Q: What sequence folds into this?
């Protein structure tokens, strides 16, 4: 039989979060990482990469018919992106809440985009929008061996599980 902690670990959800080149250049890495950390989510992968245009097109393939697609992919591939995987209960949906609405002029204050960005074309951060995209985006950006499974000492205080 599985122990409480193993059951808990098996239920843990993962999402792909990326700080786009504008967020990196503006020195917002620590600010953004700390919001996910302080919430109680666990960082399981992180790397700084400059994606190629072709890679950016893969990442945003769902948007290829949109008029901003080309500019968006040019931008994503224009400099370093901080790619991350965060783990936690409900992290996909709540991570999007922490990020805020796509257009920062409509994002609530208190959200990352609401507090730190002004226009939709420079909204500093990406987050997976559902379980399927999270799975696909994690697989696109990371090799399985780059995902680190570990128990954080804080988990029993965050989840109340022994
Ligand atoms: N975007 C844009 N113009 C728009 C809509 C979106 O430049 O009118 C960009 C914006 O950077 C956004 C990205 O395209 O973050 C992906 O769009 P999506 O609708 O998936 O928004 P997100 O999931 O990032 O909130
Ligand atoms: Mg999206």
A:
């Amino acid at each position: 039989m599985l122990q409480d902690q193993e059951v808990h670990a098996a239920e843990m959800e993962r999402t792909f979060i990326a700080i786009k080149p504008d967020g990196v250049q503006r020195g917002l890495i620590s600010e953004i990482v700390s919001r996910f950390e302080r919430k109680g989510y666990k960082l399981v992968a992180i790397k700084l990469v400059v994606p190629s245009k072709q890679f950016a097109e893969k990442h945003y393939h769902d948007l290829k018919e949109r008029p901003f697609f080309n500019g968006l992919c040019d931008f994503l591939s224009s400099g370093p992106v901080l790619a991350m995987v965060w783990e936690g209960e409900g992290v996909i949906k709540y991570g999007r809440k922490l990020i805020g609405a796509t257009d920062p002029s409509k994002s609530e204050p208190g959200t990352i985009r609401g507090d730190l960005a002004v226009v939709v074309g420079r909204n500093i951060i990406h987050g997976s929008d559902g379980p399927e995209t999270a799975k696909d985006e994690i697989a696109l950006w990371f090799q399985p061996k780059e995902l680190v499974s570990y128990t954080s000492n804080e988990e029993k205080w965050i989840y109340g599980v022994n």
User: Anything to note?
Assistant: The first helix runs from residue 4 to 11. Residues 63, 68, 72, 102, 120-121, 123, 126, 129 surround uridine-5'-diphosphate (ligand 1) (CB under 6 Å).
